[in-house]
Amino acid sequence: MTVSEAESEVFAPASIAQQFVEARLKGVSVPGYPGGVLPRTMADGYAVQDIAIDSWPDELVGWKVGLVPPQHRERLGAERLAGCIFKKNVWDATSAPTPFRAIAGGFTAVEAEFIVRLGKDAPVDKTEWTADEAAEYVGDLLIGVEIAGSPLATINQLGPPIVASDFGNNDGQILSTVIENWREIAWEDMPSETFINGVSVGKGGAFSIPGSPLAALAFLLGHVASRGRPLKKGMLVTTGASTGIHDVAAGDQARVDFVPFGTVACVAIPA
Question: CA neighbours within 13 Å on the CB side: how many for 261?
Fold first, then answer.
């Protein structure tokens, strides 16, 4: 093996982050995982993500929470993962479908989300949280749609560390109605159903989030504090794909019904 071949097999977080950031900024796909050497642990994935966050020319305004598939949890020591949300990729829903980009040759999907807006700053050094403790930091609970997206078409197939390494596979967030008096409503009474091009592709609700959306928030509060990025008042937290992850391509229209709280419509357009 030559020196250059040996060097090419080294996991290089800075180089990976740079290539993902450049591809996202240009709206183009990458042919494979940058550098070819995959992150093996969640810590590896977040090392890439942290560099990318610091390199991205926009303000970090929130985080997405996703589930680690059961078959990976014991090996990785994780049940959930986190991704980053930036200000320019947050849109308010209107009566017209909200446009979002689909990178040709990459990955794009929509996810029905129950979203927390933080009501106050979280402690900087608290890394273990219960759902009840997390509830005290909820300012608003909203409905909306996460745009899952990456320049890497196989991002979900390659595993959670790879997902974490590229923004957690997030490419935007659509915000809609605030659920008034949410504490007085059972999770079972917050349903959601996703339609792609008019066809139902998934049903669920806040009850579909393991442990409730507050459990997802509790994870995120501790996780980001451990990375030196504690949550601040006004930040957004998407708590999980309540009807599943639904792949889309440019031209597809999506709608999520959160009866009786509202409906969110969006349409994928070419990047």
Answer: 27
Domain enclosing residue 62, as ranges: 3-270
Q: Residue 260: is the preceding peptide bond cis (ω within 30°)?
A: yes
In angstroms, the Cα distances linking 36 to 6, 19, 47, 158, 210 are 12, 12, 16, 12, 33
Determine whether 66 is exposed, middle or buried from the number of CB atoms within 10 Å of its CB (0-12, 13-18, 19+).
buried
Question: What is the domain count for the chain?
Answer: 1
96-120, pLDDT tens digit by residue?
Answer: 999 999 999 999 999 999 999 999 9
- Return the CATH number at 184: 3.90.850.10
What residues are paired with 115 via a beta bridge?
142, 238
How far is 163 from 156, CA to CA, in rounded Å? 6
Average confidence score pLDDT of the chain: 96
Q: Are strands 60-67 and 90-92 parallel, antiparallel or unpaired?
A: unpaired
DSSP 123-135: PSS-----HHHHH
Structure tokens at 257: 């019904």
Q: Which residues on adjacent β-strands are paired with residue 118?
A: 138
Sheet holding 262-270, edge to edge: 98-102, 262-270, 253-258, 191-196, 199-205
Helix (H) or strand (E) holding 217: helix 213-226
Percent of the chain residues past pLDDT 70, beyond the cut: 97
